Amino acid sequence: MLVFFSYTRNLLKPRSSSPLPFTSIMHMSQSTSIPKKQDRVRDHGFDNYMEAEKKTRKVLKFQSLILSQPSQTLPISRFDSLARRLGLGFKENEAAAYLLKFPHVFEIYEHPVLRILFCRLTQKALLQIEQEKQALHAQLPDAVTRLRKLVMMSNTGRLRLEHVRIARKEFGLPDDFEYSVILKFPEFFRLFDARDTRNKYIEIVERDPELAICAIEKVREREYREKGLDAEDVRFSFLVNFPPGFKIGKYYRIAVWKWQRVPYWSPYENVSGYDLRSLEALKRMEKRAVATIHELLSLTVEKKISLERIAHFRMAMNLPKKLKDFLLQHQGIFYVSTRGNYGKLHTVFLREAYRKGELIEPNDLYLARRKLGELVLLSSRKAKVDKELVSYRRDTEVDDIVCVRPDYMENDVKDFGVEYEIEHDGRREGYSLDSDFVSDDIDETEDLDERMDEKEDTV
Question: Where is the region Disordered (predicted)?
């Protein structure tokens, strides 16, 4: 009996001559040969990008508060209560001190009549808003094409209006895109209410075969013509660029090579009529999901979007449930950054679109948005400001607060190339910008959107 158990135990042991150990086989995907369990390797170029954007998002919230006022000015004493309402995490009197960190964006001055401190946007910040507004209007035809391609990627040719509205900034759509894009082009879109859920949906009127061409197909053609690679190797491949420090073993390299040659269905192709139960169909559908996310990122303005935004389109585009694990399986194509919101925000970048933290092919809207980031990151030491303690009475208390006198604010805005004049101490010297600015980045439902993202399917 002991001899029998010893013999059977030896049979269960993995053979040393096997090309792949038993533990590696357990972690392999059932539909492809790429291992599912992959440790995330950080890329500091993308993480630093998100750290800078974290400051910009908070500044945008303060900008929206100021621009929402009829006079586009706001008393300093109100920022604390408004910041707590927005959930920005400021303690008492910290919001006013935070504004002083960005003298190129916010200008603090003493009201000539009320003799209390007010805050308004600087000329540079106003000009940046005007630039972004003009760039958004100029690229509106491209935004219409992006929305058409986005709706065409859905299985039923329709998407929820609310999901598109939440991600409107990423796709370069204006705040009123329901009227300025959807209803303005009835030959492309149809807007209707679902009877069962009472949700509004955007439906494509007619699929255009000329638009059903993925961005990766153009990249493959360029790679084939410039580098002269084998046509069979390039036919279904993606550009793979692993982050620094990513360990690529012999068998992993072979697995990626085999996966690159697996054919798949286009994200714009209707797969409802196919039998998806076979192993070959599972392989194609998994690679189709990679192509869908790749195309989704290619349609964005900055070639990045949050993971929670992608989850909104999961059911409509046949994406896997565990999106984060799925994207980590393909770190050479995508990068998932957890920086920018204390690990609560996951931002997905298209690796091939960036080089050293910069977009390789920038557009006007992207450049206009980066102008604000440059103003935020510009050192406060370079601002010609004079800080002095000024006492003013608020209710029954007397607080000391730092005041920035507008007389010493830097007025050189030659980089923006637009002439301006602004109101100082009650004297309006007339400027050419519109008075009713609208922030394209922050709205009153942003916190609601974030709660909706957290309740979305597990990512």
Answer: 430-459
Distance CA 119, CA 121 (A): 7
DSSP secondary structure letter of residue 196:
T
Give the SS3 label for residue 71.
Answer: coil
Q: Which residue has the higher pLDDT, 383 or 345?
A: 345
Length of the chain: 459
Those residues whose C-beta lies under 8 Å from the C-beta of residue 243, and which sit 6 or more positions away, are 41, 42, 43, 331, 335, 351
User: Token pair for residue 53?
Assistant: 């954007």
Tokens of 259: 């996966």
Per the CB < 8 A criterion, the answer to whether 119 and 111 are in contact is: no
- Render 239-307 in DSSP notation, one character per residue: ---PPTT----HHHHHHHHHHHT-----TTS--TTS---SHHHHHHHHHHHHHHHHHHHHTSSSSEEEH
Single-letter code of the amino acid located at 55:
K
Q: Which residues fall within 8 angstroms of residue 351, CB to CB, at 6 or more apart? A: 239, 241, 243, 332, 333, 334, 335
> What's the rounded Cα separation, in Å, for the pair 204 and 192?
11
- 34: which DSSP letter? S
338, two tokens? 């957890």
- 292's CB contacts (< 8 A; 6+ apart) are 153, 267, 317, 318, 319
Higher pLDDT: 104 or 454? It is 104
CA proximity to 129, closest of 422, 372, 379, 423: 372
Pairing outcome for strands 200-204 and 158-160: antiparallel
Nearest to residue 328, comparing CAs of 35, 9, 23? 35
* pTM, rounded to two decimals: 0.75
Task: List pLDDT tens digits, range 263-275.
Answer: 999 999 988 888 8
Q: Which amino acid is at 83?
A: A
Q: Judge whether 158 and 194 are in contact, CB under 8 Å.
A: no
Strands 347-350 and 117-121: unpaired
pLDDT in tens, 295-350: 999 999 999 999 999 999 999 999 999 999 999 999 999 999 988 776 678 999 99
